[in-house]
Amino acid sequence: MIDSKNYKILMGIGLSAFFLIFWNCLATHQERVMMETGVSVKTLGPHKYQFIAIGKASLSSVEDQDAFKMKKTSCEAAKLQVTQRLDELEPEQKHRLFFLEQKEQKYFGDGEYCELTYIYELPPAKKTTTPAKEHS
């Protein structure tokens, strides 16, 4: 029976199927990326800062492997870190978020992590001119 042609064909098909399934399982296995989250600040001048923040996606989006939700929640986490740090640096400025400009956005690990780069620059105060007094 082992020498039969049918047995050899079935063994060949069986081994091929096994390797095909094994290879597909290896291809779908992905390494998880682990990154430090937080925000770093570089002072560029008076009332001018560069923020680079890394946020991590919500646990539910990672468990569901929902790429859209992972990207959304990881970037929201990064932006929250930037705004909290800006609140500490510029507590007197009421409309500070208006002067916060996003420069760059990167994703890591299928969106599980988001890196945002922001520039904050408070414009110089407008000089008010007082009208000259008229001489009579």
From TrEMBL:
NCBIfam families: LIC11299_lipo. It comes from Leptospira langatensis. It comes from the Bacteria. This is Lipoprotein. The lineage of its organism: Bacteria, Pseudomonadati, Spirochaetota, Spirochaetia, Leptospirales.
